[in-house]
Amino acid sequence: MTSKSPVASDISSPRSHNEDHTTTAPAGTVVQSQGVTRMEAIYRSTKTNKKTLWLVGGSVLVCAWAYSLDFATTSHYAVDVSSYYHQHSTVLSTLAIVTSIISAVSKPFVAKISDITSRPYTYILALAFYVVGYIVAATSQSISAYVVGEAFVALGSSGIDLVNDIIVADLTPLEWRGFLGALLSTPFIINNWFAGKIVQAMLSRNQWRWGYGMFAIIMPVAVCPAIATLIYLDRKAKKTGEVNLASSGEAHRVEKETADQAARGETMVDTVTMAKPEGSWLKKLRRGLIEIDAFGLLLLGFGWTLLLLPFSLKTYAQKSWANPSLISMWVVGGVLLIAYVIYEIKWAKMPSAPRRLVFNKTFIVCVIIEASYFVSGNMRGLYWSSYVYVTKPWSYQNWVYYNNSLTLALCVFSPLAGALQRWTHRYKTICIIGLCIKVIGMGIMLNGHKATVSTGALVMTQVLIGGGGSLAVVGTRVASQASVPHQDVALTISLLALWSSVGRGIGSAIASVIWANQMPKQLRKYLPAKATDKDVQALFNNIKKLRTAYAFDTDMKRGAIEAYQHALYYLLAPALGLAFVPLIAAFFMSNFYLGKQQNAVTNVGVDGLPLDEQDRNPEPSHKPLKEKIKGLWKA
């Protein structure tokens, strides 16, 4: 086993301690958070009884089932809700931006909370936001109340989803990480067939409120087994003495390294534990906010929100882009983002994006892939459901089946991607192939200078984008987790999700501007001459009227379909161009060996004890640039 890696040393650097903790530790000191240590303890306590480990997996899978049923149904109600409040085009984009940014910024919060407390108590916190959100959305009497409710739901659901992912990463080796992580999406394969019937029943009776409200009951019932199981195992590990920072896997690893160094006559590395919070509850709260980097994340969240929201609000703002309020939002948003960068560099005691991750090549490449992937994806997908809603005379049930087909393809092919990773012990080539397939799928969406209406092409594009995307997404997530020590896994998952959500927000903002600019013009151009400007504006704001008020073979409906085809082209063409960005970036990923280790940096097992996988991982290349470019495929 080699000496302590630079990444591991950075975890234990003096900057990792705030002034409320114990005295500053020297470089090389182990600092591992409580949440990570407790999960290592749970794993060690289940080694003698594998049934309990299966129980954890089963309870987390039940959470994933409820989450997938939520996603498969509630995402379709927004079209009717926005039309109900006569603000379809604006509400869809505004809601997408707000929920994307909230999901983005909340995930590092959730990850930090799960590290400094524990995974089950983080479940409870996320569940509380989730339930409150759906109660508010279901009982809303205004569009503002509905958006607020959805914002709470975004916070809660992103937290539940993140904790699911963190637990899988905690308890699985790299060779199985992609496959077992992908299993969390498989309940959607079953739920897809029920979702159409549920949405059909709710929307045909105009009962979208119950469509939201039922999840305030379903999710608590589904999450409680996972919470109870983890709390039970946590307490059991405490009783057996496993939950002890000094006996954590990281400490065992460094203890072994220390012995090896002593045998070679090298300087020994000390091991200390992070001090438990002491003092008044105000001091504990302050310490917790510092560890979470609350101020930095608030700057980031408000910055992106103020920067992106004007793109969806400008349609109804007086003077459009020249509106003083929108200009103020842009300026303040830009200033806050600059302030975030400066604060993280100069003053943050525990930055939300620590230096060891900012300069981690594999992690940064994964961020570029995921962020650009979702910018392109949301440009393509934000109004795609509305497009199909108008252009195809399908029932609500069949419309839902079609909309869910992309996610269904993702869920079917994701375990296949994980199985390929288990077989090959690598991920890079699989990821590149997936991104190529996705580009082909996006190309099929176009029919010359307008969007296709061919049913065969509509179905094929969903299958290819979903199938290709699954190969890529599973690859980038495993790669990012492999590139960091266990201590940083939760933060890495959350930061990758953060920039994915920011990418969604940016894609939605761009799409809203293009749509608001093109759709009224195309409607005016292709609707019959008898249609008034008032008719154009009404159909722009309420697509349910367009679907129900005109027969499919009328001039109004045909003109509207033609308008939708041409307007959507201006979203699909740039989205296709952006789809090449993640493909190019994928060539620059490291290609770690996926073995029995928890990560590829410290080469420790899931229980925290050392393994010997180091020689299978790529070494830093010192070749000339020309040779590096030639070797990208093998790297």
UniProtKB/TrEMBL annotation:
UniProt keyword Transmembrane present: yes
UniProt-listed SUPFAM superfamilies: MFS general substrate transporter
Membrane topology: Multi-pass membrane protein
Subcellular location: Membrane
Highest rank taxon of the organism: Eukaryota
Cellular component annotations (GO), alphabetically ordered: plasma membrane
Similarity remark: Belongs to the major facilitator superfamily.
Pfam families registered for this protein in UniProt: MFS_1
Keywords, in A-Z order: Ion transport, Membrane, Transmembrane, Transmembrane helix, Transport
One BP annotation, GO: monoatomic ion transport
Segments of this protein annotated with the region Disordered: 1-29, 611-635
Polar residues bias locations: 1-15
Listed name of the protein: Major facilitator superfamily domain, general substrate transporter
Regions that span the bilayer: 52-69, 89-109, 121-137, 214-233, 292-313, 325-345, 357-379, 399-420, 458-479, 491-516, 567-589
InterPro entries noted in UniProt: MFS, MFS_trans_sf
Compositionally biased residues, Basic and acidic residues: 613-635
GO molecular function: transmembrane transporter activity
Main location: membrane
